[in-house]
Structure prediction request, 166 residues.
Amino acid sequence: MFEKVSSLISQYESQIAIYREMLTVAREQQQLCTEADFTGEENLEKFNRLLLKRQKLMDLIEENQSEVLALKKSLRLSLGLEEISGDALAGHASFNEIRKLLEAEREIIFLLQKISALDSRTQELFQSGLDRLKQGIEKIQRNKKANRAYNPAGRQREGFFLDRSE
Prediction:
């Protein structure tokens, strides 16, 4: 039993490390959205690299989570429990292991909340940047229309070539 609980703690600690790295990436994304105007390809490439890095981290979390679920199921079945919680594990694991398990779960929840808050703000900043870019494009298009209205293309003074072959 103790080895399964220790394995579960180890898996949670691995998740914490991945979530901390994901938090760093989320901060970098937010900083980029704060500073960048996204009119150049360089900033978009940076953002795409961060998204790719984040996707790889999410894939690692998914792998880890499937191992966590398998461990929990095994532990639940072997102990005859309905769920794995601190109270349910009392008497089956040491106080120190239960404490570590609960601390790891709390840390994961805390990191997820921070990542979620950063993501919300990043999304707002990114959308704002896209709106500014759209307005810039619309302004350029209006200026082009105005230029064509005031400076129409000159009439063609030379002959035309008509091709009547079919």
In short: The two ends are 87 Å apart (CA to CA). The chain has a mean pLDDT of 83.
